[in-house]
Amino acid sequence: MKRIYSVLVENRSGVLSKVAGLFARRSFNIDSLAVGETDTPDTSVMTIVSTGDERTLEQIEKQLNKKLDIIKVKTFSEEQCISRELMLLKVKYNKSTRRDIMEICDIMKAQIIDMSKTNLMIQICDTPEKTRLLITMLSSISIVEIARTGTLALQKCMD
Amino acid sequence: MLGADAIVKCLEEEHVSCVFGYPGVAIAPFYQSLSESTIDSVLIRTEQNAAHAASGLARATGTVGVCAVTSGPGATNVITGIATAFADSIPLVCITGQVNSNLIGSDVFQEADITGAVESFVKYSYLIKNVNDIPRIMKEAFHIASTGRKGPVLIDVPIDIQNATISHFKYPESVSLRTYKPTVKGHIVQIHKVIKELEKAKRPIICAGGGVLLADAQKELIELAEKHHLPVVSTMMGIGVMPTDHPLYYGMVGNNGKLYANRAMNESDLLIMVGARVADRAVSQPDLITGNKTLVHIDVDSAEIGKNAWAAIPLVGDCKSIFNDFLQEDFSGDHEAWIETLNGYRSSMLRERKVNPAYVDPAAFIRRLSELMDDHSIFVADVGQNQIWSCDNFHVRGGKFFTSGGMGTMGYAIPAAMGAKFAAKDRQVVALCGDGGFQMSMCELATMRQHRIPVKIIVLNNSFLGMVREYQHYTYKDNYQMVSLDGNPDLSYLSKAYGISYLRAEKMDGIDEIIREFLSGNESCLLECMIDPLDLVK
What is B3-163's CATH superfamily? Predict the structure, then answer.
């Protein structure tokens, strides 16, 4: 089972390591982790995606709540949230592959943001599934390197 | 006022009576300031024992124990003591000196990232970066250590912060931590659910853990048990929640517990776990205890509920407050037949011990010792076979029983007993250890002498690491490896070297006289009991 934890934390040094350490020490999985400041500079939000059985996922929430640097923990399933991931990809191209790459980017709504004589840089901002799909599509062409933010997610808007 | 003075002033504000510790350059300003205070300081012989002594003090008094050590090796040495306190939820504040703040991260002499190293053994930790934060941090540390699920808090103070001038000292009256608000009051809806189950139950039982002692809720537990005729068993950490001979107390559960206690827990239809973690030594297969019964789990730490066993009714809160809520409610149940059954188990399900008359029988000895000790004495069992014999045979009357339950740290008994005795000078304090654990902390005999802390020490000597030997007996067909303690020192000479009187018991004959002599007077004494090297706890 997959669950997304949106964790509001005090923006202090060492907090990331405490949260990551908690996952390591209790053998909880981290599928992805993304951190950034919120609208108030003294707090950050960590978006953590984890998988496990029901009991483990509940323990993760309880253990996170015990940490004194954590202000609030929200948890939700993939269906309950909108999630996005930003990925940058560098691929090697030549005359015969250039058109294919551009077509794939077009279909996937990815942008080419930089290029040299041999390399292209592609940017995609989409759901984690779509970013994975783009990797699959481009892997046959030769990916040089990849950087991903990890999943960011917020609960869907409700009135 | 310097940062170091401010720390000491904060300790005074918290009514700290004593700091156990070991100095070094990085904590020297603090000890300079402490010398001008009325707070006592006890120079322990190795840092691990500073935390154990603070733990003993905390458990004896119900207050926060304090220790202070230097940076680097001082700080890393104290980790085992901190982890021991963490595993048993003992409130400590550990102050560590740190190198100059602008040198942190450059691997200078005696630098260790102690806040990083202790992260998984502390409730919280601080690295003070601004001298003006000292009052707030100290206030928070004591608050965090002593509320909710208690535990150790570490404060790392760079030497330049200790030497910096604080612009304005004011000890805060309260703390405001937006991330920390422990639940005290149990939810009334959950309490009513438990009462419904109690009215329905034919075979209810309470299993009390160390949380009951930490909440100082023994009186309320006994009142509740007596009012509704509820039988009580305890975990190892829960020993002492009720007098051992209380008619409703059915002993310690677990793989080293009483057979009848385990049977009582297994056959119950309603199990109320309170202040207990459902840890592996108490309940080896947690899922089994939920199969044929309703599990109610009461704990101040919500993460403990559902961690090892799924509870039908979780109830989060301070158990003293929750017991009082139960006492306010009117309800009745009928389980006289159950009590009769349990009394039958208690009188018939006794383990037969094979006793070798050529030695002191540790079981009978501990039983007799507990009967001859003062009513309000403190007994500290170390770790190993001596601990299991103690749990099985020590009769708690009005006193306290301490041991390192969660971490099982050998060498705990002597420093913890010292801490307890220092805080409770009018009480008899006895530490009991094996010859292995004794040698892990015998350096503290000097501390006891120097600071006049008259702890009574018993060494059950079998020249073996008995618990591991027993394991090798069962698991490796008596292929004993690394368990012989052939090089043991002569304890009579050792006692003499430390100026402590020495007694020796070789057999059970005349044991009462020896115990009486051992317990008499308010001086330290070391009693060595020769026990059968091949004796087993089971």
Answer: Thiamin diphosphate (ThDP)-binding fold, Pyr/PP domains (3.40.50.970)
Question: What is the C-alpha to C-alpha distance for residues B514 and B75, in angstroms, rounded to an integer?
Answer: 41
Distance from CA of A12 to the nearest CA of B (A): 11
Say if domain B188-348 classifies as CATH 3.40.50.1220: yes
**Do residues A85 and A115 make contact, with C-beta atoms less than 8 angstroms apart?**
no
Q: How many domains does chain A have?
A: 2
Mean pLDDT, to the nearest integer, of B18-40?
98
| Chain B contact set for A55 (CB, 8 A) | 306, 310
CA distance B525 to B514: 11
Please identify which residue in the block is written with the tokens 């699920």.
Answer: B149
SS (H, E, C) chain A: CEEEEEEEEECCCCHHHHHHHHHHHCCCCCCEEEEEECCCCCEEEEEEEEECCHHHHHHHHHHHHHCCCEEEEEEECHHHEEEEEEEEEEEECCHHHHHHHHHHHHHHCCEEEEECCCEEEEEEEECHHHHHHHHHHHHCCCEEEEEECCCEEEECCCC
What does the mean pLDDT of chain B come to? 96
The pLDDT tens digits for B38-83 are 999 999 999 999 999 999 999 999 999 999 999 999 999 999 999 9
B188-348 and B3-163 share a CATH fold: yes
CA distance B86 to B125: 13
pLDDT score of B502: 98
Task: Say whether residue B290 is in contact with chain A using an 8 A CB cutoff.
Answer: no
Question: pTM here?
Answer: 0.95
Give A22's contacts in chain B (Cβ within 8 Å). 120
What's the domain range around A104? Answer: 82-155
Average pLDDT on B251-270 reads 94
Best residue in B179, B180, B301, B302 to probe A by mutation, most A CBs within 10 Å? B179
pLDDT value for B352: 86
For residue B263, what are its two tokens? Answer: 């049977």
Report ipTM (2 d.p.): 0.88
Query: Are A68 and A97 within one domain?
Result: no
Chain B residues 137-156 with a CB less than 8 Å from chain A? 144
Phi-psi group of B477: left, alpha or beta (phi > 0 → left; psi -120 to 50 → alpha; rest → beta): left
Segment B111-152, tens digit of pLDDT: 999 999 999 999 999 999 999 999 999 999 999 999 999 999
The domain ranges of chain B are: 3-163, 188-348, 362-530
Q: What does the DSSP 8-state code read for residue B186?
A: P
